[in-house]
Amino acid sequence: MLNYSVGSDGIASIEWDMPGQAQNLLNDASMTAFAKAIRDALADPSVKGILITSAKNDFIAGGDLEVLMQGGEAQTLFDGTLRWHKLLRAMETGGKPVAAALNGSALGGGMELALACHYRVAADHPQARFGFPEVTLGLSPGAGGTQRVPRLMGIQASLPLLLAPVFGSGVLAPVVGSGVLEGQRIGASAALTVKLIHAVVPPGEERSAARNWLIASIHGGVKPQQPWDSRGYKIPGGGPMTPAGIQLFTGANAMLREKTYGNYPAPRHILSCIFEGLQTDIDTGLKIEARYFVNLVMSPEARNMIRVRHFGINEADTPVAINDSNVSRDVYTKRVFGAYLAEGMALLAEGVAPALIDKAGLIAGMPAGPLAPVVGSGVLALTNKPSIEPAGKIARQAQADPGVERIIERLILIQSLEAARCLAEKVLTRPQDADVSAILDWGYPPFRGGPIGWIHTLGIGKFIADSQRLAAQHGPRFAPPQFLHDMAAKEERFYPA
Amino acid sequence: MAEAYIYDAVRTPRGKGRQGGGLNQATPIHLAATVLRALRERNRLDTSLVDDVVLGCVEPVAEQGADIARVAALYADYAVTAPGVTVSRFCASGLEACNQAAAQIMAGQAELVVGGGVESMSRVPMFSSGGAWPTDPQVAHKTYFTPQGISADLIATKWGYARSDVDGYAIESQRRAKHAWDNAYFRHAIVPVLDINGLVMLAHDEHMRPQTTLDDLAALKPAFQEQGEKYGFDSVILQRYPEVERIEHVHHAGNSSGIVDGAAAVLFGSAAMGKKLGLKPRARIRSFASIGSEPAIMLTGPSYAAEKALQRAGMSVKDIDLFELNEAFAAVVLRFMQVLEISHERINVNGGAIAMGHPLGATGAMILGTLLDELERRDLATGLVTLCVGAGMGTATVIERL
Ligand SMILES: CC(C)(COP(=O)(O)OP(=O)(O)OC[C@H]1O[C@@H](n2cnc3c(N)ncnc32)[C@H](O)[C@@H]1OP(=O)(O)O)[C@@H](O)C(=O)NCCC(=O)NCCS
Question: pTM for the whole thing?
């Protein structure tokens, strides 16, 4: 798991090397081993400094999705999170210099571990990436990232790094200014520019660079200290309640809702961790972070997004796991996405304002309203699009308005029903293929976990009841297929969690 | 229940709320003390009889912080026994302060109370006190926080007030304010702000632009479009109001309330206290009310507040001779007139904040005084004053001359 050795120079080396895996990941076993190594090194009087390295191509790739999918009780998750915080705090306040040699990528929990070191030096690999992809899984950084990053570089600079993954690049530019950060994970030189790391060296020299820093630090005789633990520490650029901070959060909150329609709690909670946490000391801030982290781990949004990711949407957003042929995927898309479009037409026929219908689609999390022209390719371009006259000042006319929540319910449930029928008719064979295809092929909102994932999220029983209510009002297209009744009767589920 | 009477009402002129404005030289304490002193001197008050000084202030920080009402009373040489309390109901703070002053008397727990308000927007700018509403991510999310200018634009869009409608209203506000000044309708209320030597700093409302034409206004750029489009606030409020297709940004510097400095004070007392002091009551408080309304559209509260206050008084809209509704934004007044079917002849007859400015914490008390002066000038009996309020509220007060 970890290779631990103490050299004659008094430097304890902790080398991450998880057996049987290409990547180092944070899970119970590796975290327990690391905690023991750190405690040993801090307690051993012959150890003067600590070097953290990796035997893999990358440093640490982040948390183990299997673990995160297990969820758990809030108290247990909270206690566990605080234990890790305590360890990292012991490491950074233990009086011995700690350096991380980042031989490759350090992401998520791996980057957070490095941030609790006094010195971070990275190898200049073009493929190495640094950053916080947690938000793409519906999570927040849970090991201090929301507290240490803004304390290191200032709140403004930290936002794109912690939030950009959910928006793509450049989205927060009006608030934070366009900077070096392009996209979710940054390379070594950008990481250096934003002060996420201290130095970049040619590949292969990172260990010796870290070692040299440790030796200098040991001989300098100054107690190593994180900026936020030093006397008179001030947040670069000021805290949340300065005029600049007030403006920043006011704008970021609005932009977040503009981009996410309020559907994604993770970026909101990340903002809250910064907003609330940076008005306190680091230890209190870490507790605040842990509370939001636990809330997200237990959220249906995170569970759905992690599940879908687990099924094989990889980082490049290309499907790797769909079994069925492209033909059946096309048929599936036409039917389910077509049902969404048709429901938009049905609402229009009922006299609901087109603007409201399209807005409801967007608020539901869809990439476009059901009446909006689809700029798509392949399957989507084949779909018959109704042509709609510009709506004009529709708000002034008396129109049917069932309420946006009801419209959203119809637009979402109709997709789940059609997806379920496709499974029943074996258009696609596995629920996960139905969910992954929906997200990749027509931009179905990941927080719902796909059309089948959404049935799972609601619970099959509630889904049947809701569908039957809609069927009574709007006709048999909302009647749930028999196999759902059967599954409900047998208390079966589509997914374990 | 005891009756609360208004014995006097004074205000400072309103100075441009920016550097170089006529009252930018005056501290907020100085503004508040100016009106408190005026009340004392005009009424030869024994201030040891004052049970409380209630002042509205929307940004109670920095120079305006730490209970400016108490400190202003001390600075104005009120008896040390006269306490002070600062209240905020955002833009209705000045009226809220008056209602709370009256309420103490109506409840039989006080005999003589000053209500009023102060705001130096040039020295303590809007939003200085921060607050969780726009900034706390959870709060902003839950309430669809949107800045008030965009809420006003939503009102115009939702109920179809075109740019020409709101601009037309603004021109009339300017015309009426000029007419009122030219004919000295405000002379009874205005207390010039003097410096330490007794020299005049400001004696008239300096925000007014009576020469403004519709063409002038048509040339002005919408003030809240950039905020709405660039920072995402249009999207936020449209998510709350999905039936509206897009926001028409019709408000600008010429049809929104001006940013100004000023203070106002109103003397409330019981009947017995009036007799004891030899003062003649000018009006009594018939009723007052505050309401909460949907916070994102924010500024639709006045009609609900007016209806509630009228109901408490056992009155209806047609029983009211004159209305004052703070001209926060032109669309707010147009909406109020539309909902309650009030003709422009009966409301804001001497102009309002579009012409003269809206010194946030003071305005409610100012327009209460303006209403009473005008009822007297026209020899009418009943008036209703109301303001729209941040975070979706409204406050209203019904008065009746004796
Ligand atoms: C609308 C608002 C943003 C405008 O602020 P501002 O830009 O500082 O206003 P200014 O006084 O500088 O006026 C802007 C321009 O309009 C012009 N202008 C304003 N009123 C005008 C009029 N009646 N006729 C012609 N021009 C006018 C000014 O000359 C100025 O032009 P310039 O830029 O060429 O000098 C501001 O007044 C506001 O926010 N008002 C609402 C206050 C508020 O929210 N109160 C509390 C809530 S109700």
Answer: 0.93
